[in-house]
Amino acid sequence: MRLPRSLRAGAACVRFTKCAFPFVWRADRTAPGDGRLRDGLHLRIPAKVLAAVLLLPLALSACIGDDDTRATSFMEDSNSNQAYPTNYRSEVLAFLKTYLNNPAGVRDAVMAEPSQRTVNGRVRYVTCLRFAERKADGNYREPRERAILFINGRLDRVLQDASEVCAGVAYAPFPELERLTR
User: Fold this and answer.
1) Whole-prediction pTM
2) 3-state secondary structure of 53
3) Residue 75 falls inside a structural domain
4) 36-41 contacts, C-beta under 8 A, 24 or more apart
5) Which H or E run contains 24?
6) Same domain, 55 and 98
7) How confident is the model over 95-144, as pLDDT tens digits?
8) If we measure between CA atoms, which residue out of 47, 8, 13 comes closest to residue 27?
9) 93 and 156, same domain (yes or no)
């Protein structure tokens, strides 16, 4: 007795492979009219597309980096004199209102005047800030030190590891940060 075509060896596997994995298929026959089965799986993806998909993670890995090691800015000129950040206090307050999860829960806030420091081999104006923020459970974290980098007189970014950049600065109270609301 001969089995129906759908139940023969290999037919169910081929049908399953085509349905479950649309980019992989298995040919039943090597050539029209040939009775032999072909071994192995074959891809229906063009080689160029496959190469692009495999090389994409490599290309994107070049974008990964720490904030402290990346280039300072797109619009910078390393030889130009930097402008002093005249309204740095208001810029820092506006930034921290969006940066902090709970800007209303800040205490022990102190800030240093902007001074020129070397960051990533370039001289920039940097102001240092130290504050304790409230956690979700209502307790306060230990005061953390942040360095805020200015380029061309405008706030550019926050450096998380500020221990080296902020060494030896003189802090003054920053009550505006403690009075910040949501």
Assistant:
1) 0.56
2) helix
3) no
4) 37/10, 41/17
5) strand 24-25
6) no
7) 998 888 888 888 899 999 999 998 888 899 999 999 998 888 888 889 98
8) 13
9) yes
